[in-house]
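Loading example: each entry is read as two labelled lines plus one structure line.
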Amino acid sequence: MGQKILFEKIHIPGIKTYDVYRENGGYASVEKALKMNPDDITEEVKTSGLRGRGGAGFPVGLKWSFIDKKSGNPRHLVCNADESEPGTFKDRYLMEYIPHLLIEGMITSSFALGANLSYIYIRGEYMWVFKTLERAIKEAYAAGWLGKNIKGSGYDLDLHVHCGGGAYICGEETALIESLEGKRGNPRIKPPFPAVKGLWQNPTVVNNVESIATVPWIILNSGEDYSKIGLGRSTGTKLFSVSGHVKKPGVYEIEMGMTVDEFMNSDEYCGGMIDDRPLKGLIPGGSSVPILPKHLIFKTANGEDRLMTYESLSDGGFATGSSLGSGGFIVYNDTACIVRNTWNFSRFYHHESCGQCSPCREGTGWMEKILWRIENGQGTEEDIDLLWSIQAKIEGNTICPLGDAAAWPVAAAIRHFRDEFEYHVRFPEKIKNRDHFVNEPFEKVKHLLQNTTV
Amino acid sequence: MKVTIDGIEIEVEPGTTVLQAARMIGGDVVPPAMCYYSKLKDTGGNCRACLVEVSKGSEADPRPMPKMMPSCKTGVMDGMEVKVKTSERALDARKAVTEFLLINHPLDCPVCDQAGECDLQNLSFKHGLEKTRFKEEKRTFEPENIGDKIQLHMNRCILCYRCVHTAEQVCGSRNHGVLNRGDHAQISTYVSAAIDHEMSGNMIDVCPVGALTDKTFRFKSRVWFNKPFDAHRNCDKCCGKTTLWMFGNEIQRVTARKDEFHEVEEFICNECRFDHKEVSDWVIEGPRKFEKWSVINQSNYTRKMDKVVIDTEKQILEGRDQDRKKISMKEVPYKTSEK
């Protein structure tokens, strides 16, 4: 049984309410933090080695230390709860079942940064979670944890929840800030980084829900203790949102460093495949990270065990590895059609592109159209190469990482499952049957490809 | 501050961007800019046509930048080394951007009023593919009336955001903007025919493509059939310095004066632009010069043009003969004697 940090108290009945949360030791970290020096808190988080849980994995303490404290402008902390990555739902679970943990983390973190006005930016589709948070904040205000002069320490903090309009791009930190300011959610061009000029041109830190919710534990114990959990530079625990063809999908908290094999097949976690159909692929970190084919899931390219850490999952670069991303763990068995799946992701990125910079605006739509053609049996051999060329042209040429996120799944699908694309191109009459991949999984018809010549 | 662009060293003020430094050098090293406009604040960074490779960050931090940088938004650092035309990556990225901009562009240059002074035409002439790889149907928008002075062709728009910034900074208020997102993002007014401001005509000048054109000039003439003249008049709203586009003795169009980067020198008001089409309204200074490769110089009647003689008729027919045999009408004999 691994150590639980975020889910330690989540199963206590009534933990959603302030009274139960407080009885179970809630807000103790705020009491402790208010007596500390804010810079010491940042130092503590730095020692913990906590890395941002939103996807990029940038060390949280380092991010905090970049904030411009000299300018004298008011500072802000913004919690990024705009969790829209397909396959990721850990933040929602956390906010829905233990909202006070996030609020406690927000108070502690805001105190460390010297922010007197903080925001939680939540996506528009999480309306009920928005209401849960609003209620929790009201309770926190009533108990004196928010507002003027918190518990006599002389520190003021106002916390607001802001509901987004439902755009994936607003999960990008600068687009989130624009949206929070009431503008169109277009990412800004960096530099300047938010730590210097963020919300209303003030120094701002944007952190993921999970990162902020981890801070109370680090304060109550110590950064040293936190860094002992986990493996190497991937310290602490991580939430994984498991979906797909496994017995027990859901949100799991694990200590980093567990093997992928154990996580997927032990009864405590995913519990193995849903039925006796074999495993085909795995997306370990949400839709924007590359898919891993069967032979690269449990072992890396050089034969080591693949572990649930930032380093091990990205071992081998994108050629033979993937990325931990935001922890959206999607498992596919052999009845999944990779082409259809890639098309679906592409459709998502096409729909969610903000339209600000040209490679992403035009490229995502183009990729979707080509994938749609291939998926419907109207593709040609050249289309596969064309897709490859388009994704290479989008990647790295855009303002924000959405272009990269749209390009990577397509690149990985072609890299590892090219034969399946070829099958779609060469046997249009077979794939025109809408559920061809259920009746005839690709493994069964793979031999047909050998008989064809181009 | 010293910055080296394609091996050419130049001394610039701190706060200059790479693009501005390249423009100071001039010539081939200037990256194309589809969205950046030096006369407007906050423009740039959207089109990605000006991507350059920074091979040395600065004297203090000599690491190269891993990503391609938009030169219009990247400030120079002391000792920075930038590759524009010497970098294969930068040229590839520029070609990619050109292709992306063109896939949904209607390519209706033959009927577009902007043809001849269009930045996208120049860009695709230099960096475009000769064939399209885009098989699908192009994206289109419903036609929309945004006012009685300006014609909006949303299909041609490349979303450079220049007109949005113009409305904000030159007009002071804007009632048009970008609606929707992704490739369905469009320039639009929420209420139709709403653009009505005395400086709104400048949006026509800043538009790099034919998305915003002059309604009073619509379909009147190709720009290279007009003779451009610098002229001025006393105007209490603007500087009054304009370029008149004449056809014979008729003023067909009035625009602001544009420099070699196709940016206006000074913004002009709608009264000068739309309401004064009589020669007597203006004091004409002299012919306007354009860069030597510009198609507008076609109107320069003083240049001696050789008579074009076509004597390839024979080869053309031969080619046709071969083609007929090769492709469609194999069975049909070309000459009766061939039977």
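The domain at 338-449 of chain A is CATH 1.20.1440.230 (de novo design (two linked rop proteins)).
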